Amino acid sequence: MTELAPVSTLINRMADDLRDLLAAREIQDPAVIGIHSGGAWVARELHSRLDLQTPLGTLDIAFYRDDVGTRGVHPQVRPSNLPFAVDDRDILLVDDVLYSGRTVRAALNEIFDFGRPRRVLLAVLVDRGERELPVAADVVGARITLAEGQRVKLRGPDPMELTIQDVA
After folding, report:
1. What is the CATH number of the domain that holds 140?
2. What is the pLDDT along the chain (168 residues), one digit of tens a residue?
3. How far apart are CA 77 and CA 138, in angstroms?
């Protein structure tokens, strides 16, 4: 079984890496957007650790997914909240698990419906590989490889815990 570091350790590592990346790219105050729900939890923690001034944003990408209606589950849609202008902003998009890349693609589509950002950086708590789309994170808390039939799940929000589950 794959062992995962505590979520707080991964988020601290991500915050350190993000400070370095933002400084290298001369980004002062990015707008942070968390993808509901686990990505929003991680984004809240990163936003706090980075001491950013722009309010935190959240996205619910349920209707932007390319598999909506084919998953056998009707999505429970929550409103997205972007309390800032997107146009010409540096955006830090945050999610809990990067797998196929489809969630990130859906989030980008929704962000561009709000405006045209200068750039979008991606930070994920866990990258489990096996992409279906050419998506790569700029900052990653942990990279893992799972056996077929397993998935990683973030439980939370207080406290946050990563678990590996067998899919029935």
Report:
1. 3.40.50.2020
2. 467 899 999 999 999 999 999 999 999 999 999 999 999 999 999 999 999 999 999 999 988 877 655 555 556 677 899 999 999 999 999 999 999 999 999 999 999 999 999 999 999 999 999 999 999 999 999 999 999 999 999 999 999 999 999 997
3. 28
